[in-house]
Amino acid sequence: MADATRIPARSEVAESDTWDLGSLFADDAAWEKALAELESRIPDISSFRGRLGSSPEALAAALAFYRDFGVLDERLSYYANLRESENEGDDAARGRSARYLAACARIQALWAWFDPEIQSLPESFVGSCLADPRFAEYAVFVRKLRRWKPHILSEPEERILALQAETRGLAQDAFSLLTNVDFDFGTIDTAEGPRPLSQSSYSSFMRSPDRELRKKAYFGLYKAYDAHKNGLAALYSGSVLQDKYRAQVRRFASSRAGALFPDDVPEAVYDNLVGAISDNLPVLHEYYELRKRALGLGELRHYDVYVPLAPEAKGRHSYAEAVELVTAALEPLGSEYVSTLRAGLEGRWVDRYENKGKHSGAYSAGSFSAEPYILLNYKEDVIHDVFTIAHEGGHSMHSWYSARSNPFLSYGYTIFEAEVASTFNEQLLFRYLFERAESDAERASLASSKLDDLVATLFRQTMFAEFERRSHEMAEAGEALTPSALRSEYRALLTKYFGPSIVLEEQSDLECLRIPHFYNAFYVYKYATGVSASIALSERVLSGGAKERDDYYAFLRSGGSRFPIEALKVAGVDMSTPAPVRAACESFARWSAELKRLLKL
Predict the structure, then answer these.
(1) Cα 110 to chain center, whole Å?
(2) Continuous segment of H or E residues that includes residue 103
(3) Quick one: average pLDDT of 422-432?
């Protein structure tokens, strides 16, 4: 159990509260041995060069080598990343990641011939090979790869791009180090005594009913960001310019077009999302007016938008209690799903609590040949963290089914789909808790939590998506992404989305410099599309029967065998239209009205 009064060192965390990475490698020494094995295979890469079209046997042999090389490479990558996440300030872990990335850059450069040669193969030859049963496990991979033909460069150009792999993530890496390791946010005086302010504890402070405590935490956090705004803006600008460069080199019309191409998601889907949300912002503005009245405030400040509007029915949930709630809520998905997830959550899939230097937030890391690990920074006094377990559990079970239903080269699903499986679980957890609530006070607490979650995933992520679209448009037009320019654009969006009920602080627009997902461009819109799809699918499964559940399982098992829009159609929702987003906004309006009724406002 975590001690809320201090952040422990990694060495102080109980082993049972950490993940067991043994399904990847037994220990660091085993990883080192595997890295040496990968490097020993490097000379064999060139042995297939120039031979792919010589015979079906030669192509099959090359694809088999590519597959096996990729499986080992993925295991090495996941282990290095997960170990570094345990403590981002640990020199040994960082050194391990650096050596892997160095090897990866060399390897990618040596594979630079592969994509161009695949593209050069005659269509008749490729078609005859893919009709051969020997190529069954490679068919999806080859067809998807061939789709990239307009954007694949010559071998020398591909090699130059591959050699940049080591530098590609430097801006994101520096941002993470600064904000998770180097920044000192100080401590906050509370009724229980001084408590450290960190990226993780900030969310807990923002949910405190003590407004003065929220205010101190808010200004304490943004003081650090204000002190480093120029460097942070330069890092983000560097990330955006990298996106621009890669899109131009790959002959995409824009950074966004390049980011959406791998998922075969039309840009209209992105614009439909922004348009549908913009049309429905009045329901969000009404919610903020409700929030102001419920909190009894003359004016709503930026540090007032996360505190629950109703007292939480149960203020603390141990990790074990959280697992019980989550698995009970997911019973409609069947015994295999629930028993598998329970075993992972109670076992060693999960790194449960915060420690010094640990990566902030939460994520699931599902790979082909290992357990689908989960990183948490679980807080017993934050009800949202119970939903985070359901959310990350959805990701991990999606990985579990995908890896068992597809060959390696086509098991990986897209982030677009991932955010459906995760928020689907959150919908079921909410429904379970709401239906079993014993009082209006408890129902109000749950409705408040659901609305806050929808604000975060549906509306806020769309606001972030608008900002990303605008910042990349600015860069592509040759405009400098200075701190003032970025903050000005972001403040306009804060005003648009929060509406007239909120008073922004001078520091409020510094938020644009503290969003980690901005370093993975055009990612955040998938949260909003994902929750829209999950609302529709959860209602379909809960109100349906075996067919509706089987359709959802077909989606989970599809992995990378289909593009996301197609996969979701199999599940029963069409994200190529704005209808699911509009329906999600209607759901938000209904729950907002229900909360208003429950609070008697």
Answers:
(1) 30
(2) helix 91-110
(3) 94
Res 167: pLDDT:
82
Q: Helix or strand or coil: residue 121?
A: coil
* Chain center to CA of 579: 24
> Residue 392 catalytic?
yes
Q: What angle do CA 235, 273, 362 make, to 5 degrees?
A: 50
Token pair for 53: 């079209």
Residue 381's closest CA among 302, 461, 455, 316? 316
Residue carrying structure tokens 């450069």: 109
- For residue 506, give the CATH number of its domain: 1.10.1370.20
- For 591, the token pair is 């729950």
Query: Closest by alpha carbon to 560, among 450, 445, 399, 329?
Result: 399
E strand spans, 261-304: 300-301
Q: Point out the catalytic residue in the list 380, 392, 419, 548.
A: 392
Q: Residues 6 or more apart from 248 whose CB is under 8 A from it?
A: none
Query: Which two structure tokens, joined as six digits, stand for 196?
Result: 């450290």
Burial 22-57 (b: 16+ CB within 10 A, else e): ebbbeeeeebeebbeebeeeeeebeebeeebbeeee
Assess whether 536 and 422 both reside in one domain.
yes
d(Cα 584, Cα 123) in Å, to the nearest integer? 43
d(CA 87, CA 369): 24
Residues near 66 by beta carbon (within 8 Å), at least 6 away in sequence: 114, 409
Q: Kindly report the CATH number assigned to the domain that includes residue 80.
A: 1.20.140.70
Q: Burial level of 506, CB count in 10 A (0-12/13-18/19+)? A: exposed
> Quick one: DSSP state of residue 418?
H
Number of domains in the chain: 2
| pTM beyond cutoff 0.85 | no
**Final residue in a domain of this structure, among 142, 168, 194:** 168
CB 532 within 8 A of CB 580: yes
Residue 352 vs residues 14, 338, 421: alpha-carbon distances, Å: 10, 19, 21
373 bridge partner residues: 365
Using alpha carbons only, how large is the chain's radius of gyration in Å? 24
The whole-number pLDDT of residue 191 equals 86
* pLDDT of 269 above 70: yes
- Residue at 206 is within a domain: no
The residue range of the domain holding 20 is 10-168
* Rounded-to-integer distance, Cα 550 and Cα 334, Å: 10
Give tens-digit pLDDT for 476-499. Answer: 999 999 999 999 999 999 999 999
Structure tokens belonging to residue 168: 């590609």
Does 437 lie in the same domain as 548?
yes
CA separation, residue 145 to residues 113, 139, 262 (Å): 13, 10, 10
* Residues forming a β-bridge with 351: 375
Asked if 307 and 214 count as a contact pair (C-beta separation under 8 A), the reply is: yes
At 302, list the tokens: 């930026």
pLDDT tens by residue, 550-587? 999 999 999 999 999 999 999 999 999 999 999 999 99
67 closest CA partner among 145, 129, 181? 145
